[in-house]
């Protein structure tokens, strides 16, 4: 996929190729090319190179719904007339006197810019089609095994157990470790609700503690203070891609006989002390929801280095059925399985994970450069050299009193900003589980997530920075 964050917003010469096709190209060729350029749109050229029309993934989907044949339908059938003055088009063409394309302007600002969009190329589509055609569309299938093996390796772990989503992965981890009634699990107050919900649904009690003001992850001191004889596990969360101090947490917990369940939903590829997150703990979980660094639509995975736990999770994930004895249940289990269709997308995403991490890092760097002079904007603290964070969402802290004005000003310009998740201790569902958590509370009241995906080019970053400047000054 073209890296628009590198090439800027105007395409010339050979760069035009990924945004064009020929009238006699098949619909399938058009679909693959429109996916790969990341904008889902193409200019359709005649044999003489003149522009005959424009096609979008939307118009191609419509053609398929209306019965078009992927091979015999031609791009000339699905393209619509180009409106050179269309201010709502994300790509506009500049033509020469004879109607040939000389330049394309990429204009992500022309439509609503959400904070996230999945990055899906022809490779995911081909894998998905392959899985579909194999008819192994449930959870038995080679893509599931391949995804588990390769993702676990990338996460520095021996075993991967794919699940239907990231919440299911946390649930599986808790149950596999035997955590339930009467147990306490120490969870950061600043996290997405799934971290605490899964503990509650396992029958245990989440003990919500404050986070560190620099890392925004669970504070080591707060863990130490919260440990009681009932503490069975600690669940650090690498929030927004920022790694928690895993060596210290693991050492503390192992010296007290406490399990560690690492929630890596937001931090695929981050490292601490040179090791990938997910590789430090008894069990670690990941999410592959559509806004995550790599996605399978819905999806999740547990990873572990413990062969016994791996076997146990596979058994519990599949109704508690013995792996080597069909329809024999020694424990009441669950259905937490990932489908082969999900895993087929995951395999292609995994091949592109490093590219995604690089792209997200570049976008964050651009925000830092564009907003460093804006009074009232604070970027997260540079982490110490033991941490190698990834950017899930680029984020900033702003004065609490200005946050909703900022969100509204961006919305008026068709740009989504999202306030940080509410600290759990602020909400009725979790109030009575919480310690005093001033850092978490302050982050949740002042933080915003910025759009962080492949369409966020230099111009968009400057536009967003301009809105911040106007509102905050
Ligand atoms: C920290 C954290 N844990 C768990 C989850 C749950 O993952 P899923 O949405 O795949 O169930 C999320 C999802 O956003 C998350 O951010």
Radius of gyration: 24 Å
Which parts are unreliable, with pLDDT below 50 for 5 consecutive residues or more? 2-7
Strand order of the largest sheet: 7-15-14-11-10-8-9
Give the strand tally: 19
Structural domain count: 3
Q: Give the overall silhouette.
A: globular
Average pLDDT over all residues? 95
CATH class of the largest domain: Alpha Beta
Which homologous superfamily in CATH is the superfamily of the largest domain? Type I PLP-dependent aspartate aminotransferase-like (Major domain)
CATH fold-level assignment of the largest domain? Aspartate Aminotransferase, domain 2
Residues in helices, as a percent range: 25-40%
Hetero groups in this structure are: pyridoxal-5'-phosphate
Specify the CATH architecture of the largest domain.
3-Layer(aba) Sandwich
* Number of helices, counting only DSSP H or I runs of 4 residues or more: 16
Described by strand count, sense and barrel closure, the largest sheet is:
7 strands, mixed
Span of the ends, CA to CA? 38 Å
How would you classify the helix and strand content by structural class? alpha/beta
Give structural notes.
- The protein is an alpha/beta fold.
- It has three domains: 4-110, CBS-domain, CATH 3.10.580; 122-351, Type I PLP-dependent aspartate aminotransferase-like (Major domain) (Aspartate Aminotransferase, domain 2); 353-472, Aspartate Aminotransferase, domain 1.
- It contains 16 helices and 19 strands.
- It has helices at 4-7, 27-36, 57-65, 75-78, 122-134, 142-154, 166-176, 194-201, 220-226, 246-256, 307-317, 340-351, 353-371, 400-412, 438-446, 458-472; strands spanning 10-11, 20-22, 41-45, 51-56, 91-95, 101-106, 159-163, 184-188, 205-209, 231-234, 259-263, 271-272, 275-276, 283-287, 300-304, 387-388, 394-397, 418-419, 447-450.
- The strands form five sheets. It has a seven-stranded mixed sheet with strand order 7-15-14-11-10-8-9, with helices on both faces.
- Helix 2 (27-36) links the parallel strand 2 and strand 3.
- Helix 5 runs antiparallel to helix 12 and helix 13 (353-371) runs parallel beside helix 16.
- The two termini are 38 Å apart.
- It binds pyridoxal-5'-phosphate (PLP).
- Residues 165-167, 191-192, 194-195, 237, 263, 265-266, 287, 289, 300 line the site of pyridoxal-5'-phosphate (PLP).
């Amino acid at each position: 996929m073209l890296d628009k964050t590198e090439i800027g917003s105007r395409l010339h010469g050979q760069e035009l190729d990924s945004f064009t096709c020929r009238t006699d190209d098949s619909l399938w060729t058009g679909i693959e090319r429109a996916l790969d350029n990341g904008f889902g749109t193409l200019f359709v050229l005649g044999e003489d190179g003149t522009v005959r029309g424009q096609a979008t993934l939307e118009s191609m989907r419509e053609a398929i719904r209306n019965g078009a044949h992927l091979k015999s339908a031609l791009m000339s059938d699905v393209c619509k007339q180009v409106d050179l003055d269309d201010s709502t088009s994300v790509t506009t063409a500049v033509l020469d006197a004879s109607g040939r394309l000389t330049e394309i302007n990429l204009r992500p600002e022309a439509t609503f810019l959400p904070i996230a969009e999945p990055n899906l190329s022809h490779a995911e589509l081909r894998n998905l089609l392959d899985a579909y055609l194999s008819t192994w569309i449930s959870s038995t299938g080679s893509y599931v095994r391949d995804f588990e093996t390769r993702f676990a390796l990338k996460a520095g772990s021996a075993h991967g157990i794919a699940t239907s989503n990231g919440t299911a992965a946390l649930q599986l981890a808790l149950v596999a470790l035997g955590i339930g009634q009467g147990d306490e699990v120490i969870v950061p107050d600043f996290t997405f609700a799934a971290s605490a919900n899964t503990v509650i649904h396992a029958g245990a009690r989440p003990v919500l503690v404050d986070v560190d003001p620099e890392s925004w992850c669970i504070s080591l001191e707060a863990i130490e203070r919260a440990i009681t004889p009932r503490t069975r596990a600690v669940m650090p969360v690498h929030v927004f891609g920022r790694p928690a101090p895993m060596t210290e947490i693991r050492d503390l917990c192992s010296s007290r006989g406490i399990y560690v369940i690492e929630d890596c939903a937001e931090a695929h590829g981050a490292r601490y002390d040179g090791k990938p997150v997910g590789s430090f703990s008894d069990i670690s979980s990941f999410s592959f929801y559509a806004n995550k660094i790599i996605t399978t639509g819905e999806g999740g995975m547990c990873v572990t280095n413990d062969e016994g736990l791996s076997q146990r999770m596979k058994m519990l994930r599949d109704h508690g059925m013995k792996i080597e004895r069909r329809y024999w249940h020694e424990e009441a289990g669950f259905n937490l399985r990932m489908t082969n269709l999900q895993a087929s997308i995951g395999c292609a995403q995994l091949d592109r994970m490093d590219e995604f991490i690089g792209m997200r890092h570049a976008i964050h760097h651009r925000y830092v450069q564009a907003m460093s002079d804006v009074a009232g904007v604070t970027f997260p603290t540079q982490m110490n050299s033991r941490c190698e964070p990834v950017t899930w969402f680029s984020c900033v802290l702003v004065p609490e009193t200005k946050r909703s004005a900022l969100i509204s000003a961006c919305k008026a310009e068709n740009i989504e900003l999202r306030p940080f998740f509410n600290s759990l201790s602020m909400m009725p569902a979790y109030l009575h589980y919480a310690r005093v958590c001033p850092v978490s509370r302050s982050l949740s009241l002042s933080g915003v997530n910025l759009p962080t995906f492949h369409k966020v080019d230099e111009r968009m970053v400057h536009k967003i920075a301009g809105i911040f400047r106007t509102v905050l000054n």
